[in-house]
């Protein structure tokens, strides 16, 4: 696998693996919005499209007739679609596959996890202790979603390294090197089959048991459906939320005025979290064109891959006044970080809980912190954007209450 | 003022319930509806407007009845 050639023209030859896009994509999207609402690229099999404005992103997300979810990652070479219902499903199959999961992720069910989330954050902060420096992505943010989803699935929390390895292979490395994807997916499936076997006929309070008992039209889920959904639940919630927590901490480390304001006035937390979700939206999805069409005046050819960028939509000044500014008290914020339409993130209640509690607990312990002098954050590439290294210098830790 | 949730459009983002829990609640699937008859007391009118302006699916409706 070689590094992609540098991009010369973003409108006709875009590449989201380019280091400038990974580091700081916002100026690129601003430029595109002004001159070409739908950019193209021949670097990906059958061609790829990228919409940079809210209106087109919304139109594509709502249009499952022309834009299928069977490929949700833009790849250099297409692979045989790997079903992971409901994210890879189109209507009519999508509706029942999603509906059966909704009760487990409703606001009421997720709010029960708050005490556990708080305890878990405090344990991680205790481990940082009185240290003068830490890596907030590695020592803190990455562990929170792993432990919660492991708890919900009823698998060992200590398998977190394994989960992160799979996710890195499928969502990052696999964009350019398809040889790593199938082995990673097979390992994940084998892992879940072993977990199912372990349960035998016994059922617990966990999502694997919940799915084993689930029925669609009176029938249990097929093995590929069951294991595809389990893989999705594992992949969808981890580096997304890790990124959301990490980007929020990065913002607060680099904007001391916002940090002090939030510490002084915790009632700003809900608008601050929504604003971090808007401005640093972690997730870019994809669609495959299944029927030729035009959006925003631009033609989309059959088989093309579409990069569906909720992060770019969230920075569109036509939708958000001062779109390029992060305003932690932004009251009107119809952002699309969790998608739009039928595939709205199933885990959005969980993700919001995790982000809110993680930031509250961090600020309660470390109201003062900044990026370590001379050190830099590093950002992930691909489908999910967030800091993977956050070298912080910490102020004095406050006593846990 | 009265609020209503268009069930065809609502995808359960839960923004309305978070902003104005006095006016909206979620069912067991996470989709929202107005509490009671949806009538908004004057002191909650601003919150109702905010809920409408934050719904990503444009599902929150306000009427003046
Ligand atoms: C900040 C964290 C997160 C962000 C930004 C995020 C974002 C998204 C987005 C944009 C979609 C829409 C996909 C599309 O239109 O094709 C989605 C779908 C989904 N997300 Fe999340 N997500 C996050 C956390 C989670 C968590 C914690 C879970 C829990 C397991 C989760 C589970 C799912 C599932 C199952 C879907 C598919 C829903 C469907 O297709 O009906 N996500 N997410
Ligand atoms: S904010 Fe809109 S989509 Fe979300 S629950 Fe309320 S009405 Fe439904």
Topology:
The complex is a heterodimer of chains A (401) and B (65).
Chain A (H helix, E strand, L loop, with lengths): L18 H5 L2 H10 L2 E4 L6 E4 L2 H9 L4 E2 L25 H6 L7 H5 L2 H15 L4 E3 H6 L1 H11 L6 H12 L9 H19 L7 H7 L1 E2 L2 E2 L2 H32 L1 H9 L4 H11 L4 E6 L3 E3 L2 E3 L4 E5 H4 L34 H18 L3 E3 L6 E2 L7 E3 L1 E4 L7
Parallel strand pairs in A: 2-10
Antiparallel strand pairs in A: 1-2, 3-7, 4-14, 5-6, 7-10, 8-9, 11-14, 12-13
Chain B lengths: L1 E4 L9 H5 L4 E3 L5 E3 L10 H10 L5 E4 L2
Antiparallel strand pairs in B: 1-4, 2-3
Write a short abstract of this structure.
Chain A has 401 residues and is of the alpha+beta class. Chain A has helices at 19-23, 26-35, 54-62, 94-99, 107-111, 114-128, 136-141, 143-153, 160-171, 181-199, 207-213, 223-254, 256-264, 269-279, 310-313, 348-365; strands at residues 38-41, 48-51, 67-68, 133-135, 215-216, 219-220, 284-289, 293-295, 298-300, 305-309, 369-371, 378-379, 387-389, 391-394.
């Amino acid at each position: 696998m070689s590094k992609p050639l540098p991009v010369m023209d973003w409108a006709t030859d875009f590449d989201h693996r380019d280091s400038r896009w990974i580091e700081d994509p916002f100026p690129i999207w601003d430029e595109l919005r002004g001159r070409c609402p739908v950019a193209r690229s021949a670097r990906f099999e059958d061609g790829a499209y990228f919409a940079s404005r809210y209106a087109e992103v919304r139109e594509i997300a709502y249009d499952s007739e022309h834009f299928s979810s069977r490929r949700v990652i833009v790849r250099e070479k297409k692979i045989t679609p790997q079903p992971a219902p409901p994210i890879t499903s189109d209507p009519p199959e999508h509706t029942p596959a999603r509906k059966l999961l909704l009760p487990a992720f409703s606001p009421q069910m997720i709010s029960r996890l708050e005490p556990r989330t708080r305890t878990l954050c405090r344990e991680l902060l205790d481990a940082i202790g009185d240290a003068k420096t830490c890596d907030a992505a590695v020592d803190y943010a990455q562990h929170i979603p792993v432990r919660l989803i492991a708890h919900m699935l009823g698998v060992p929390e200590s398998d977190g390294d394994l989960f992160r390895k799979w996710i890195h292979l499928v969502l990052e490395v696999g964009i350019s090197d398809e040889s790593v994807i199938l082995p990673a997916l097979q390992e994940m499936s084998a892992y879940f089959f072993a977990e199912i076997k372990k349960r035998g006929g016994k059922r617990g309070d966990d999502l694997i048991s919940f799915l084993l008992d689930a029925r669609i039209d009176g029938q249990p889920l097929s093995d590929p459906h069951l294991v595809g959904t389990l893989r999705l639940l594992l992949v969808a919630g981890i580096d997304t939320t890790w990124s959301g927590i990490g980007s929020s901490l990065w913002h607060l480390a680099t904007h001391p005025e916002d940090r002090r304001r939030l510490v002084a006035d915790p009632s700003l937390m809900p608008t601050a979290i929504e604003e971090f979700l808007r401005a640093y939206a972690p997730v870019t999805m994809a669609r495959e064109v299944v029927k030729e069409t035009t959006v925003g005046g631009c033609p989309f050819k059959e088989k093309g891959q579409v990069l569906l960028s909720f992060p770019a939509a969230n920075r569109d000044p036509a939708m958000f006044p001062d779109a390029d500014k992060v305003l932690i008290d932004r009251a009107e914020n119809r952002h699309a970080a969790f998608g739009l339409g039928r595939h709205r993130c199933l885990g959005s209640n969980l993700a919001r809980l995790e982000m809110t509690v993680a930031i509250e607990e961090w600020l309660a312990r470390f109201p003062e912190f900044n990026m370590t002098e001379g050190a830099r954050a590093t950002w992930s590439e691909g489908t999910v954007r967030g800091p993977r290294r956050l070298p912080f210098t910490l102020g004095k830790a406050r006593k846990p209450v | 003022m009265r609020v209503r949730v268009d069930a065809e459009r609502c995808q359960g983002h839960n923004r309305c319930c978070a902003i104005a829990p006095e006016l909206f609640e979620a069912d067991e699937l996470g989709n929202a509806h107005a509490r009671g008859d949806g009538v908004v007391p004057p002191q909650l009118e601003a919150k109702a407007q905010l809920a409408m302006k934050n719904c990503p699916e444009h599902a929150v409706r306000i009427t003046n009845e």
